Amino acid sequence: MLELASTHGTVPGETGLENSPLVVRGLTVSYGQKPAVFSVDMTVQTGTMTAIIGPNGAGKSTLLKAVLGIVKPLSGQVQVFGKTLNAQRGRIAYVPQRASVDWDFPTRVIDVVLMGLYRQLGLLGRVRAQHMARATDCLDRVGMRDFANRQIGQLSGGQQQRIFLARALAQDADLYLLDEPFAGVDAATEKAIISVLKSLRAEGKTVVAVHHDLTTVAEYFDNVFLINTRKVAEGPVATAFSADTLQLTYGGRLATAQIDQLAQVPG
Amino acid sequence: MSGAEFVPLSLTPLLIGIFAAVACALPGNFLVLRRQALIGDAISHVVLPGIVVAFLATGVIAAGPMMLGAGGAAVVAVILIEAIRRLGRIEPGAAMGVVFTSMFAVGVLLLEQSDTSSVHLDVEHALFGNLESLIWLDATGWASLLDPDALRGVPVELPRIAVTLVGVILFTVIFWRPLKLSTFDEGFARTLGVRTNVLGMALVIVAAISAVAAFDAVGSIIVIAMFICPPAAARLMTNRLEHQIGWSVVFAVASAVLGYVLAGYGPLWLGARDAVSAAGMIATVSGIILAITAVAGPCRTRSGAPVQD
Q1: DSSP codes, A175-234
Q2: Considering only alpha carbons, which residue of chain A is nearest residue B173?
Q3: B3-62 pLDDT, tens per residue?
Q4: What span, in angstroms and rounded, lies between the C-alpha atoms of B68 and B50?
Q5: What CATH number is associated with residue A227?
Q6: What is the largest CA-CA distance in chain B?
Q7: What does pTM read for this prediction?
Q8: With an 8 Å Cβ cutoff, are A101 and B191 in contact?
Q9: Full residue range of the structural domain in which residue B168 is found
Q10: Mind telling me how many Å the CA of A213 is from chain B's nearest CA?
């Protein structure tokens, strides 16, 4: 049932890997002497929502960044819908950590969302009515339509997160990668974001999110990917998100009682 | 002032000052937002050894070799800064600090050890430039602007900085979208296929070319001031990058014109006998503009500073 960290190439019982939104093989990333991500395999199925879970410094964000080509891996392969990343950039959308940018940057909400249309607009393409309509539509989906002309520094943390999600929606991708989309946001924003992600899944899109709140994993996600530099476990929440795997991932950092409680949350 | 006096004596230095200010202010907008503002400072320091080496190699102060030497030194410095930053894993400011002070020191040593007494090459010239001496003696009035013979006598610095400015404007317009995108969110830009390393390097090289072209005419003080003051003042006037660029051009031109006029006539109005350095006055005016916007600009609150993690 449970697939523990393994080095063999394919996931048991799965065929048609070439159609998988994301296949990672033997990915190793290092910032210095110590690897941040070591020999990780990952397979993501179409139309699912996967949570990447692990303690601080376990390489969750690094895994995402390596998949996206933001950091260069030491070794390993990444396949997106059966091809290399470069061939499929138009099918991936990305929501970075909110705190990774300077929100004092002089620009408006609508301009940030329009950045999601960069691949359509190109270097000198004019922003036409259809592009504005698309960006406004994406703002509407995250409940931020009325904020289009605000300067981004005037937004709350939750509102900023929604703008980033709207920008990813504008990318009109098939695979959505999100880095801690629920970090430091208010309850209303968390609800709005999860409802958008679930609607994406309903459209047959695939969602992978770095997630830190263990209490909401079973409620929000179909699959989990547990990582602590190496992959610990991968699979459906019902089987892979267990007391054993959490213990392996977090070691002594979670109290046993807490782990038991989390693992009992019904999927 | 009549055209017969203004055109030969003031038109060319004024235009050179304006073009140099705008050519530095445009890339300065992005450098300031990227927290790389001091790279302009660094560039204006590191060109000195390049210029001295060019002089030692050719034996004359000629524009071509000087530009080549300065450009070469700037490129070497940029590569050194990037190398130290990446290999040493230290913050960019520290890497720049190490590189530009070292290279400036090398330039001063070279200057001292070699015999440059026969030519106009000294540290003072490197700092203040010689804006006031870039006059157009062949001109007799406004009509000279249409006279091919007179135009041949225009100081070579004017067409050089004009061409540089056109190049800077083209770079800014063509790469506007990826520049803005990667300045705001480099990681996201990379996922879209923008080669942010190459673009960041290109921005610094464009800034270096502006700095060298401007340095040649107006010295390093004005270069440092124009990279930082007009864009920083412009940021305090608006919350939109498109408007910030416009304001920075307005402030750069205003600094150049006001600074030039005040340097030439200000001391006379105050009863003093001599004019003061135009480059110094232009830099001073840009600093005053920044001070005014810092006190009274409409967009001074910083609400969205990034969280360090």
Answers
A1: EEEEESTTTT--HHHHHHHHHHHHHHHHTT-EEEEE---GGGHHHH-SEEEEEESEEEEE
A2: A124
A3: 778 888 889 999 999 999 999 999 999 999 998 887 777 777 887 888 788 878 887 766
A4: 8
A5: 3.40.50.300
A6: 64
A7: 0.86
A8: no
A9: 3-124+133-295
A10: 18
